[in-house]
Amino acid sequence: MRKGMLIPALLLTFVAAVPNRASIRDAGEYLKKNVVARKLKNGITVILLNRGYAPVLAFEISFRVGSVDEGYRTIGAAHLLEHMLFKGTDTIGTNNYKKERAIMGRMEAVGETIDRLKLADPANIRLPDLEAELRRLQSLQSAYVEGSPYDRIYSENGAVGFNASTSKDKTGYYIELPASKLEMWAKMESERLMNLVLREYYLERNNVVQERLMRSDSIGAGLMYETFMASAFIAHPYRHPIIGWRSNIPYLSIEEVRKFFRDYYIPSRMTITIVGMQDTDRTLEIVGRYFNRIEPRPDPPPIAISEPPQLGERRATLHFESNPYLIIGWHKPTFPSRDDSVCEVIGEILTGGMSSRLYRSLVMEKKIASSVSAWNGAPGSRYDNLFTLFATPQPPHTPHELERAIYEEMDRFFDDVTDAEIQKVINGMESEMVFDLETNKGIAGTLSYYQTLYGDWEYAVDYLSMIKSVSTRNIKEMKNRYFTGSNRTVGILLDSRVGGGKR
Questions:
Q1: Nearest-angstrom CA–CA distance, 231 and 220
Q2: Terminus-to-terminus CA distance in the chain, angstroms?
Q3: Looking at CB atoms within 10 Å, which of 155, 338, 347, 365 has the fewest?
């Protein structure tokens, strides 16, 4: 996984996607001339690109808010809110909001009381009666709830790809619709942001608990990843899992989550990106008409804590009923640091395909690994992050054997990396970008990504030139700057069914 998968194939694909492409000599220049970027009066950034021949639009609404913005009282709030924003408003998702609202008021009072008692006095004799009352209220509410309201409405209007995602850095909502449905989309999306109802909150919170049990707590590699990140980051909130910790999700306060939404899902942290066949002036007028209704609010304070320099290797070992697994990470700067671009190239040379150094040596020749991959920029990119390697040992070899072999190969790599290897990576990234960003949705995602995380979509244009400037000297300088033992965190997952493994 790498940032390069998200970036400017634009520089190639746009040339193939516009009229008179033979006359376009510089795709980056084309982007700068044809992307329309405006700020609404309330602070929302709008990015538009008229592209293609079919009357279809790809929409993305993104917020510069993710799990990194959460405090200890709100860990998991961004992910839970992603769920809640599909529940509807005071007019969508309900057949009688007046009656439903009265029930929800009582439900919230009971639910908050249950949470407080479970934390402070779990043996309290009132709890069984309160839990029974909550279930009764949920049953009453269900008579007024219309499930999956947006799925139904959008499906009836020709939508595809209606979805959302939450990361460490951002939250995004995506859909593709016929261009004729632009105004319907603007009305629907602006109103679900202005009139969000935390409908079926306690049921959905419990669903997230179950989601964590299935996707994290029962998967060894997932638990190892969490343990690894909590070891690599001892201060910065990148250490927290996006979904939340198993111990805190059941106590996420509805009032705290509501406040998190009010504080962070605000116009100044919001980007609307629309790509496809459109009249951009008309699109901007419609978007402004509906989204300017969202009131601006003050920006929340910035994250005050930073990760202190690492002064020695950190190791975390996890025993679980799972195949062994290995994660190694080194702290490094984030984009747009030049060193981040150098690390991007390093990751591709080491693990980018079957001819890459680590894959060829460890998987094909020595057969001590069944898989190996790199992620430059884990677990997020708004703040300084990690260059991370993930590897699975091939039985009977152990993670410790594989770890030693990786260090040996990396030492050789830093000693003898060649210009030809760098050029091969550049060529491969250019061609992969073409395939990854041929669609309106892919282009919208790229523009939105750079605008939301770094405050300027034009970084998408600059990125490839930064990669092309990487030299062997730049790569060799990284060895002692970042790829040192004292700057390293190692996570090892051992199979508890076979005695925990051997060194």
A1: 16
A2: 29
A3: 365
Enter the tokens of residue 204.
Answer: 């959905």
DSSP letter, residue 244: -
| Residue at token pair 């994660």 | 327
Q: How far is CA 32 from CA 13, 459, 491, in A?
A: 14, 11, 43
Q: Which phi and psi (to 5°) does residue 178 adopt?
A: -55, 145
> What was the pLDDT predicted at 215?
86
Mean pLDDT of 190-196: 97
Per the domain annotation, does 165 fall within a domain? Answer: no
Q: What is the CATH number of the domain that holds 340?
A: 3.30.830.10
Read off the tokens for 317.
């070992």
C-alpha separations of 264 from 89, 248, 257, 261, 332 in Å: 19, 20, 11, 6, 27
Residue 109 lies in a domain: no
The pTM score is 0.92
Nearest-angstrom CA–CA distance, 14 and 437: 9
Considering only residues 116 and 501, tell me which one the structure prediction assigns the higher pLDDT: 116
For residues 355 and 497, give the distance between their C-alpha atoms in angstroms, rounded to a whole number.
34
> Which stretches of 231-291 are assigned E, i.e. beta strand?
270-276
Structural domain boundaries enclosing 427: 314-498
Strands, sheet with 160-166, edge to edge from the N-terminal-most edge strand: 36-39, 45-50, 270-276, 56-63, 171-178, 160-166
Residue 344 resides in a domain:
yes
The domain total for the chain is 1
- Torsion on CA atoms 187, 190, 195, 199, rounded to nearest 10: 90
Torsion of CA 113, 119, 125, 127, to 10 degrees: 50
